[in-house]
Amino acid sequence: MCGRYTLLDDDGGSFAARITDRLAREFPGIPVRTGEIFPGQTAPILASAGLTPAIWGFPLTGKSRPLINARSETVREKPAFATSFRLRRCAVPCTGFFEWDAHKTKYRFRLPGCGGAYLGGIFRECDSLPQFVILTAEANDSVRPIHERMPVILPAEAVGDWLADEAAAAAYMRAPLPSLLCDRA
User: Kind of pairing, strands 69-71 and 131-138?
Assistant: First the structure.
């Protein structure tokens, strides 16, 4: 599961700054969250039409909390997600994500040697802003000691295929996920 992620340049890079500067120019007046991003907040996503602000989570009727993740193994079959996967995949820019262990200790995971990456997601159009969820997969060896699930991580070179080609996106969800660095947060 991915319950929070980051979009901040804490390593001297400019990945987050480039994205947020561009959104500020293209969508003036729409505040976009940076730093630690929580469900329900407005954050950037990259869709086939370009970079846009979106709200993290699909609200559920009668529930106080939105649905924020979808299992990559079943996203193509679940009625709530299948159309979005087929037609509206997105890449969520991030510089890391958080997981908590059984003792509620918080850990931050990030790609080594890289200022930023993208999380695989899907979105749906709404009256105001699009809403998105992050796809998760079974945790790899670098995350498994802390949590059993992790987000689908897209290196920059995979984003184009993820957005444009459903078959490539489906294949990518079955591919091994990259090794990550882990720091206690």
Answer: parallel
